[in-house]
Amino acid sequence: MNMNTAAGKGARGLTTTEAPFIEDAKAQGQLYIHQPYEEYSEQNHEAWRKLFARMLPRWEKYANPHFLKGIESLCLNPNQVPRLDDVNNFLNPLTGFRAKAVAGYVPAYKFFDCLRNRDFPTTITIRRADQLDYLPEPDIFHDIAGHVPMHTDKAFADTLVRFGELAYLAAEIGSGIKDEHEKLVRLESIIKAMARFFWFTIEFGLMKGKDGLKVYGSGLLSSYGEIEHCIESPNVQRYPIQLEWVINQYFEIDHYQPLLFWVDSFDHLFSLVDELEAWMKDGRLNNVSGGEPAVNEEDLRSFLVPGSVN
Ligand SMILES: [Fe+2]
Fold first, then answer.
1. Prior bond to 293 cis, omega within 30?
2. Domain extents for the chain?
3. Residue 267: count of CB within 10 angstroms of its CB
4. Cα angle at 233 between 228 and 237, to 5 degrees?
5. In sequence order, what E strands does the chain have?
6. 138 C-alpha vs ligand 1 centroid, how far in Å?
7. Which protein residues have a CB closer than 5 Å to ligand 1 (ion)?
8. From the CA of 218, how far away is ligand 1's center (Å)?
9. Average pLDDT of the segment spanning 35-40
10. Residue 141 has what pLDDT?
């Protein structure tokens, strides 16, 4: 298919923060949407093409082997924004995961619950082709090229599901607390701990292998600058992961990460999620240290009344 037919005639574009289709979906209160492929403009495909081409050599150098295998298994087209249906045709038979198109932010409980069901909430918009390094919010390159290749790996996919199950446990723990104030304080702390764990593993995790440290965190895998910086820079502190540290460590999202943690393997990561569950049950997540990330109202409410968030 050539690029002219790939970009629909009169396509309005699905550009981050500038997509009328997404605005309409949000105005109608839709969270789960379809991917209107004909809406992608030539500029959108150009952005994908440029992002993919410049990342490829960096993935080969810095990404962990599971990711590289995943990129191959998904048969992503380097020249066009991927169709989610095509991605799922390759992904689903491997681990049961599916990329599921969403219109925007997914409240925390709902997000984790999707993981539990092997659905991955996926942004369908893409950053501007003339601002490849500016990312006001996650886009399809981050989600499909950064996250989804990892979901082809069974041990990693099982870890995500296991992690998603913890949200269910957290909501259950919350519902068992009678005092309203106490309930909010504890849930906020538990959500913060979960968000930190997710950040320092799924988004920004490193893995130690026979060739040294490699990247498996999707925030790093989708960043042209940071994937190199996180491995090469003397300004980054890299430590073996410690659960008690991670859940109490604040993070900031607007600059390269100064502190990263490595795991030995995905089995190791899975065992950490087991440990996180035990700690949640024991109340060890009830009073983690303050600071980022802030837990917003919507995230908190999503845990209080899980069914209320669509
Ligand atoms: Fe992400």
1. yes
2. 10-308
3. 12
4. 115
5. 98-102, 119-123, 206-209, 212-215, 237-240, 259-263
6. 7
7. 218
8. 6
9. 97
10. 97
Enter the tokens of residue 177.
């607390």
- Which residues have C-beta within 8 Å of that of residue 91, sequence separation ≥ 6? 73, 74, 97, 98, 99, 148, 151, 152
Per-residue pLDDT tens over the stretch 226-270: 999 999 999 999 999 999 999 999 999 889 999 999 999 999 999
Residue 65 in contact with residue 211, Cβ under 8 Å? no
Which tokens in the block code for residue 70?
Answer: 């995943």
Separation of CA 39 and ligand 1 centre (Å)? 23
Question: What distance in angstroms lies between residue 12's CA and the mean position of ligand 1's atoms?
Answer: 26
Kindly report the pTM of this predicted structure: 0.93
Residues assigned a catalytic role: 142, 147, 203, 222
Tell me the pLDDT of the chain averaged across its residues: 93
- C-beta neighbour count of 3 within 10 angstroms: 12
The class level of CATH for 10-308 reads mainly alpha
CA of 23 to the centre of ligand 1 (A): 21
Tokens of 296: 């917003």
How far apart are the C-alpha atoms of 147 and 70, rounded to whole Å? 10
**What span, in angstroms and rounded, lies between the C-alpha atoms of 129 and 45?**
8
Tell which residue, 93, 92, 110, has the closest CA to residue 102. Answer: 110
DSSP code for 100: E
Q: Helix and strand tally (H, E) in the chain?
A: 14, 6
Q: Ligand 1 centre from 253 Cα, in Å?
A: 11
